[in-house]
Structures are given as structure tokens and as C-alpha cells.
């Protein structure tokens, strides 16, 4: 642990004779309470676990509970150890006892509490003792009040500090959340205000000038915190990243490009993931979209994306995370911090360290081939991470250059949100109950590679058709092409506006385009009717006709594109066209 350097002027400070000894010892203050009854109750509880519990009235009329005293260096380690084992509150801190007044614990005449887990015989209390001894219990003598430096004396001792010592004080204040400006060693108004705020929090008079004692206490508490977290700056050579991590809380686990996983050392603890991959702007944006499909990145919270970087502050009732990545010289590098919601204070301190220390180094990124992965694991850059799954997914297809998507109304009914291809948020521009169709508008601009062109001429019964759809919902990364025939241009009961198909499809295909051999769209596959007294045989499906679709698109302000007359496409060209226009439509809670 780093020793605190004390200026020589402290030898001239006017203090009573016991001051020198007091400076060599420290307490771990664990709690403070505004009433004596509450403080005694809590002190009694601590005494059942620790043998060295003491309680003092504080100068602010509160009552403090402390463990100790210990030699100062022992106290710092004791504080770090007890915090690490979650035996004391995380906001416990070291104090030299300068603001301790008279003792209230142990209570005079009360039998001591044995700090043992097993039941032990309880010594007789004063009330059970003979009358001649019950009234003569020893009374604790008041603790003498320690005289600290005056503001003028404190300023003179402060003047002897080196620049490094002054910067150290600013870092300690910054760590505690009292100071937010730059570390420059200059004690201007900002630093003075932060000193006064720290003094108030520690129940000292808020003069804005730290005494020698207070400076020593501030730095010692900061060093104890650093010891608890185990902060160390690492250089991850494979990823080309330098960053400070809390190595008492996380440890390297494994590589899964583009991620370096640092797992928590305790169950359900804080975890860190470094990001490193070759890429350009499109790769950066793709990563931004992909991360938001992971369960460790909740949907709530602020998002920001620029030309060269992005950050995601994701929050939920159970888990929070912060993700950052930047693009430089053809490399995308960044990090993710994930923490339980209850660990917000601890995570905030860790995140501050990571933000200020993160630095890409070298000209290399993780090699995607450094560890064996299946194609499924490699797809989407999500290896080793749990994906957030939608309620269900159906199909749709682009109907204009702005990225509007046509699908079935059932695909978006009662959805908390709707996404296109798993990442792009969309709103329901129109849901038409009569036709069972819906038009979706993307929240961010899209540039479809293929837009549907509709066949408006008379259909040829018996012609071969193909349905493009996500038959297996979001399991496969691309739509499936299923072939069949056009059986009729009306329903079984003569209904107009729909077409009957002879084709075997799955629920995920609903909403997909029905194409003829030229690549023109003849209609949209409707979901199979559920319920009722009649069950149609497999292979009988229905599609909304182009004329019906034209009316729905017109209501949504979308102009339908008619297909030009042309000959049949080669199978590979038909497949390419069908794949280009078809979209995965996902319904989320």
C-alpha cells in the first residue's frame, strides 16, 4: 500500500500530547445512525461477528460504529478484506477518530457479545448480579477531543505538498465522486468545493482546506478501495487493447473473436468483454446493431452512434451494461462492462477507470481464425453470448426504395416492438383487418437491394410459383425458397382478392412474397387459418392478390411498382431476387 507523505510542518501543529500516537492508528467506520438506540442495536449485531467493535458519539450528533483501532496500514488492508468478503457495507471507510467523542459501545455494565457463530453461554448481566455489585459498574471515561489543525495551519501544511501529492488528493476526491475536473494539482474553486463536500460527508467542518489528518484519511480510503478492486492496466496483445481492469473481480476466461471474455470471479458478478475486429464504417454499424440483440444489452437506456464510434448505456431491473467501440485505421476496438443492477455504485467506479484508460495499441485485431468456430457461432459476431429471442418471427418484403415492408397483420399484432432482420426497429404504418395485411415503416433509413415489382396482368392457372420466407423463423440467417403451383385465383368459396396455392409452407413463411418465374410478385402468403370446424389438407395455402395489396399500399401512401413484361429468370437469378426483397419480421415483448 502506498504510504501517505506528511509535510514537515505537521510537527509544529499545536495538539495535545496523545496526538502523535493517535495518528498511528485508524478505525474502519462501518455505519452511523442518528439515534443512540438504533446505534446500540447495530453495534450489538456487529459485536456478534467481530471482537473489536466500538461505538462513539460523533461531533455531528450522530453515533458511529467502528472496528479497531489498528495500525494504519493494517486498517487499510482490513477494510479491503472485509469489503471483498461483503462483511461490511461498501461505503465503509477509514477514519483516524478525530471526530469521535464519548464512547457508547461497549455499554457500561452490559455483558460482552461473544463473536461466535455457535450458541455460547451468556454471562450474567448486571441486573442478575448481587445488589452490592450491580450499582457499581464501571463508567467509561469520555474520550478527549482531538485538536486538529486550524484552517490557517492546514493551508500552511498544504503549501508544502509536492505536485504529485496534490494530484493524488484530486484523484482521491475524484474516486469518491466529489471532484469532476482535470487532474492538474491546482487547488482552484472546483477542488476547494470538492474538499468541502468531502469534509461534510465525513462530518468535518466544511472549510474547503484539508488538514494533514484529513488528507491522510482521504488518500488511505482511496488506496483501500483500489486494493479491494485490484485495478491494474493490462495490454491485451492479441486484441491490441490497453485498459485498466479490476483484476480482483474479473479474470481472463477465453477468446471468441471478435471478443475477449473476462469472467466474474464470483457468481453473478461483474464481467468485462473486449472488442477487437477488422472493419470499416459498415462493420462498426453492424456491430452496433448486433450488440443490441444480446441479452446482456437491455433495450432500455441511451444510445449514440457517430461516423467513427458508438456507445450504448443499457439498463433494466436486473442487469445493466455499457458498450463502446470506435473505428480507426480499419480496426474496430472497444469494450463492454456488464453488471447486476444492484452493483451500480461499484460498476460506476470501474467504468470510470475503463473509460479513462482504454487505448487501442498496435495495428492488429483479433484473428477470426485463432479459435475453431462453427459457421453458426461465427455468424453475426455473437459467439459465446446469449441472444435475446423474439416472441415469434414471420416474413415480409420490401415494397419501395424507402424500405417500407409489407407483411401480415397477424405478424405485428400485440407486439411490444417490431424489428426487421432482427436489428432495425420498425413502426406499424398501417394494419388492415379486412385484408389481414400490414405496412411497416423502418425507424432508420434503409436501402433495399431489391424492391418488389407486382404482376398485375391475368394469372395463368397451373403455373409454377415460389414463396420466399423465413420458414424456420430466426433460426436460419436467410429466407428459404419453396416451390408450388398456382391452383386458382379465388378462394374455395369463390372469394375474390385471394389466390389458392398448392404448396407446403411453415408458419414462418407467412407474409413472404409469392413470385412467378419472371421474378414478379403475384401476392403475399397469408397465415393458415386456425380454429373452425374444417381443417384443410396440407399443401393448400392462400395468398393476398396483387389488386388487394395495391389498395392497402395506397392507404399507407406507398406506390405499388408494376413488373415489366419479361421472360423467365434463370433459377439462380430468381433466387437472388427473392432473397434480396424478403425480410425477417420479428415480434418482441
Overview of this protein structure:
With 589 residues, the chain is of the alpha+beta class. Helices cover 23% and strands 29% of the residues. The protein has 13 helices and 27 strands. It has helices spanning 19-23, 36-47, 72-84, 131-134, 151-158, 163-175, 189-201, 212-229, 281-291, 344-357, 375-378, 546-555, 571-581; strands spanning 25-33, 53-58, 63-71, 93-95, 100-105, 231-236, 241-246, 250-256, 259-264, 271-278, 303-305, 309-314, 319-328, 331-340, 359-360, 392-398, 405-408, 417-420, 424-432, 437-442, 464-469, 480-488, 498-502, 513-515, 521-525, 540-545, 582-588. The strands form five sheets. Strands 8-9-10-14-13-12-11 form a seven-stranded antiparallel β-sheet, sandwiched between helices. Helix 6 (163-175) packs across helix 8. The model is unreliable at 1-23, 118-138, 140-146 and 373-384 (pLDDT under 50).
Amino acid at each position: 500500500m502506498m504510504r501517505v507523505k506528511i509535510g514537515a510542518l505537521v510537527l509544529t501543529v499545536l495538539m495535545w500530547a496523545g496526538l502523535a500516537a493517535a495518528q498511528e492508528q485508524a478505525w474502519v467506520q462501518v455505519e452511523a445512525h442518528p439515534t443512540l438506540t438504533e446505534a446500540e442495536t447495530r453495534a450489538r449485531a456487529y459485536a456478534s461477528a467481530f471482537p473489536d467493535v466500538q461505538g462513539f458519539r460523533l461531533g455531528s450528533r450522530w453515533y458511529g460504529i467502528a472496528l479497531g483501532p489498528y495500525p494504519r496500514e493494517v486498517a487499510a488492508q482490513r477494510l479491503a478484506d472485509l469489503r471483498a468478503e461483503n462483511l461490511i457495507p461498501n461505503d465503509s471507510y477509514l477514519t483516524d477518530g478525530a471526530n469521535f467523542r464519548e464512547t457508547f459501545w461497549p455499554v457500561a455494565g452490559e455483558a460482552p457479545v461473544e463473536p461466535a457463530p455457535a450458541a455460547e453461554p451468556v454471562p450474567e448481566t448486571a441486573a442478575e448480579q448481587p445488589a452490592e455489585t450491580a450499582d457499581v459498574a464501571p463508567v467509561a471515561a469520555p474520550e478527549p477531543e482531538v485538536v486538529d489543525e486550524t484552517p490557517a495551519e492546514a493551508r500552511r501544511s498544504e503549501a508544502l505538498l509536492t505536485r504529485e501529492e496534490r494530484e493524488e488528493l484530486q484523484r482521491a476526491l475524484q474516486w469518491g465522486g466529489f471532484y469532476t475536473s482535470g487532474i492538474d494539482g491546482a487547488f482552484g474553486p472546483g477542488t476547494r468545493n470538492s474538499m468541502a463536500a468531502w469534509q461534510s460527508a465525513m462530518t468535518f467542518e466544511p472549510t474547503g482546506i484539508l488538514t494533514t489528518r484529513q488528507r491522510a484519511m482521504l488518500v488511505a480510503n482511496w488506496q483501500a478501495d483500489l486494493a479491494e478492486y485490484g485495478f491494474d492496466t493490462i495490454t491485451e496483445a492479441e486484441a491490441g487493447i490497453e485498459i485498466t481492469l479490476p483484476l480482483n473481480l474479473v479474470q481472463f476466461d477465453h477468446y471468441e473473436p471478435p471478443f475477449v471474455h473476462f469472467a466474474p470471479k464470483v457468481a453473478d458478478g461483474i464481467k468485462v468483454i473486449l472488442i477487437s475486429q477488422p472493419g470499416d464504417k459498415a462493420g462498426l454499424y453492424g456491430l452496433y446493431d448486433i450488440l443490441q440483440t444480446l441479452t446482456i444489452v437491455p433495450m432500455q437506456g441511451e444510445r449514440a452512434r457517430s461516423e467513427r464510434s458508438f456507445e450504448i448505456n443499457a439498463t433494466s431491473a436486473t442487469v445493466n451494461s455499457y458498450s463502446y467501440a470506435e473505428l480507426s485505421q480499419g480496426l474496430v476496438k472497444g469494450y463492454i462492462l456488464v453488471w447486476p443492477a444492484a452493483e451500480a455504485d461499484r460498476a460506476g467506479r470501474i467504468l470510470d477507470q475503463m473509460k479513462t484508460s482504454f487505448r487501442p495499441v498496435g495495428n492488429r485485431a483479433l484473428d477470426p481464425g485463432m479459435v475453431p468456430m462453427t459457421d453458426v457461432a461465427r455468424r453475426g459476431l455473437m459467439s459465446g453470448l446469449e441472444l435475446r429471442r423474439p416472441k415469434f418471427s414471420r416474413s415480409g418484403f420490401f415494397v419501395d426504395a424507402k424500405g417500407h415492408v409489407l407483411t401480415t397483420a397477424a405478424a405485428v399484432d400485440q407486439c411490444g416492438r417490431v424489428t426487421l432482420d432482427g436489428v432495425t426497429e420498425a413502426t406499424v404504418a398501417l394494419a388492415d383487418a379486412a385484408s389481414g395485411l400490414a405496412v411497416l415503416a423502418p425507424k432508420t433509413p434503409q436501402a433495399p437491394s431489391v424492391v418488389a415489382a407486382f404482376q398485375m396482368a391475368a394469372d395463368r392457372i397451373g403455373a409454377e410459383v415460389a414463396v420466399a420466407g423465413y420458414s424456420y423463423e430466426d433460426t436460419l440467417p436467410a429466407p428459404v425458397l419453396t416451390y408450388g403451383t398456382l391452383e386458382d385465383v379465388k378462394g374455395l368459396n369463390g372469394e375474390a382478392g385471394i389466390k389458392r396455392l398448392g404448396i407446403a409452407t411453415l408458419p414462418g413463411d407467412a407474409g413472404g412474397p409469392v413470385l412467378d418465374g419472371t421474378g414478379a410478385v403475384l401476392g403475399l402468403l397469408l397465415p393458415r387459418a386456425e380454429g373452425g370446424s374444417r381443417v384443410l389438407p396440407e399443401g393448400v395455402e392462400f395468398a393476398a392478390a396483387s389488386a388487394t395489396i395495391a389498395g392497402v399500399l395506397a392507404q399507407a401512401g406507398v406506390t405499388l411498382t408494376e413488373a415489366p413484361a419479361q421472360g423467365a429468370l434463370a433459377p439462380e437469378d430468381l433466387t437472388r431476387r427473392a432473397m434480396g426483397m424478403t425480410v425477417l419480421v420479428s415480434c418482441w415483448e
